[in-house]
Structures are given as C-alpha cells and as structure tokens.
Hints:
Layout: H1 13-28, H2 32-39, E1 43-52, E2 58-69, E3 75-82, H3 87-103, E4 109-116, H4 124-137, E5 147-151, H5 157-171, H6 195-211, E6 219-223, H7 227-238, E7 242-248, E8 251-254, H8 261-271, E9 281-283, H9 285-288, E10 295-298, E11 317-319, H10 328-336, E12 340-342, H11 344-347, H12 350-364, H13 370-395, H14 399-418
Parallel strand pairs: 3-4, 3-5, 6-7, 6-10, 10-11, 11-12
Antiparallel strand pairs: 1-2, 2-4, 7-8, 8-9
Helix pairs in contact: 1-3, 1-14, 3-14, 4-5, 6-7, 6-12, 6-13, 12-13, 13-14
Amino acid sequence: MHNDVPHSQRPNPYHVAVAQFEAAADRLHLDHGMRAILREPKRELIVHFPVRMDDKSLRMFTGYRVQHNINRGPAKGGIRYDANVTLDEVKALAMWMTWKCAVVDIPFGGGKGGVTVDPKPLSLGELERLTRRYATEISILIGPGSDIPAPDVNTTPQIMAWIMDTYSMHQGYSVPAVVTGKPLAIGGSEGRGDATATGVLECLKIASADLKMPLRGARVAIQGFGNAGAIAAELLAAEGARIVAIADRQGAAYDESGLDIDALTKHKQETGSVVGVAGSQKLEVAEMLEVPCDILIPAAVEGVLTGENAPRVQARVIVEAANGPTTPEADAVFAARDVLVIPDILANAAGVTVSYFEWVQDLQSFFWTPEEVGEKLSLVMARAYANVASLATKEECDMRTAAQMVAIRRVAEATQLRGIYP
C-alpha cells in the first residue's frame, strides 16, 4: 500500500527512527554511552538463499532478521515480504518494536525480519518453499526464548504455521511459541486477528473523550484496507463513525456521506480494489490523505505523511495503525497546528500485546477465551495511553515524544541494571 511518492524518494526509515530517538533522548538527558547502545541494533543477519520455482528454475532471494535490543526480553517482531524491503527499513522497524514493547510494558525486545520479494506472483508451493528456506536460514536466531517472529506486510497465519513447523522439525518436537499470529488450530490466540484494529479503537475512544469529539458521526479516512485498516473501518462504523474515504494500493474511494463497509469489502473481494465501489468518487492515495475528516488512520506503510503534505491534512486526530507513517518534519507541522497524533508505538501496540498473550498461552499450554483476551488488552492499552498522555502534559510535548520517552526510559533502565558483559 504505497502512496504516490516513489520508494527511492521516501525518507530513509532508519534515519527517521534515529531522529525520533535522539529527540526523546535529549529530553531524557541520556548520556552518550547509553545513546550509543540504544541507537544501534544488537544483531543484523542478512541471508541469501535459493528457492526452486515451479518451472524447476532456481531463484536467489535476500532476507533479513534484525534484533535491536533484547535487554527486556526476547526479540519480537514481524516478517514482511515486499519487493522494497531493505536492511535500513528492517533496522528501523526493529527499533520501533523495542519502543512499542516497552511503551505497553511487555517483556520483549524489538526485532524485525523481511524478504525482498513480491509474493503476489508466487504460487502457494513457491511461497511455502521460500518461507521454509528463509525460516531455516534465520533459525540460528529465532526461538521461543530468543526471537519470536509474527506476521507483517504480505505475511499470514499460514506463513507463520510453515515457520513454526520448519523450526519444530529441526528441534524434533513441536514448538508453538516460536512464532505468534498462528492459526488457532496450532496454538494461535483468540483476538489476534483484530488486535491491532481493536487497539486503534481503544486509543480513539480515550482521545475522543479527552477532545470532547464523539466518535458517533465523526468523519474517518483510512489509508490501507488490509488487516488493520479493514477491521478498523468495521469497528468504527459499528461505533457510529462515518467512514468517508478508504485507500488501497490501486487508489481511494471517497464518499462524503459515508461508505458502506460491507459493500466495500464485497467490492474489494470481487475486483481486488476498493476503487469504483458504487456511489464513491475515485481519488489518488495522496489526495485521500487530504480529504476533509476528523480522524485520519494511516494503516499501510511508512513515510506517507511528510513536511510537504502535512499542512494540507485536515484531520484533528491521526492514529498511526501503520509503523512509521509520519516523518519528523510532518510531526513538527502537526504539533504547530495542534493536530493530535497518536503514535504507532502506542496506537498499534495491541497487535504485539496479543502476540505476547499468545506466546504466554503457548508456553503454558493453557488458553484464554476471547473475553479474557479482550479484557486484558483493554487494561494494557488504557494504562499505556494514560502513562503517555500524562507525560506529554507534564513535558509539554507531543504524544510521540512522550511515548518514546516512556519506552526509552524503560529500556535504558533495563540496560543500566544488566550492565555490560563481561
């Protein structure tokens, strides 16, 4: 799900992540040594591996697994299959995962993985062979006590099942806790599929109460109609919000009076895109980010809200369901305009929170009901939001800086307490 800015012209995501870190580190008065530790990933693994294609030819692929910081627990983070995956992107995402796990106070560090591939043209057999070979290559890092992958862009519960099976075959017994986001039949958790969107809604409920802006009747624009975006649209429509615009890779559908989400989902299944659903106006993705709305939810890729387009964004609240959609330049514009940005490391942290619940259930071989998962998630998200919001008020800073400060302080404390070995 890309906007109109070519990938090569987007800001380097790792530079963005480091700039955000430095801004929070300045406020925390972190010393030089601690900054040096937290700025760099602990491990970066690059693998090049062959896959036998259906036509019997061999193709080489490049994959990555990065562990940013594991002082609070095992590395945790998704695996993405995308033609534009780079080492710097994976490093940025791993760093954001460290902060995300710390801001909701779950005992994980940050990791991330990816394979540079467009999975769309691959057959199911090719996808499985690629996944199993990649899992074997990174098996020197992953494990239930060391590094636990999960789904991300273009990866699915089925892909997690293959990774879990591959790892288990090497061990000689089943190890369900090696990945999260698995199907329920092999140790997945209730509530995992819609966790990210549920967390977005939890954050929005608190924010709308603070702003005295009811969700009922609020105009919402969503960029991305994958797992997070589509479910967020359903949940918000159920709350009485008016979904005025939704975008996917092909473009956007806009209807000021509100889109019918069921009709949109059906249209997407039939045509492969949200564009052209009955009663809607077609927009480019870049235009859709600037439509009149109260709430904007970027739920696709990083770097879509920039210093260039931020002045034209009309939303009062931006909730980052995607990782890293807002550049530091855009953040400065939004802060000056009093636009509330609920940052990714808080807004979409429900996904990793329920992944943590799944891991705990797998380790115990004892599973919770959907209601238990929902209650526990609500508590975690409400507590994290309250911590971040109160620090933002105290420090007179935006929510992102406050969230980063909460997270970095926790990781720095763990790092300090553990010391440097030997």
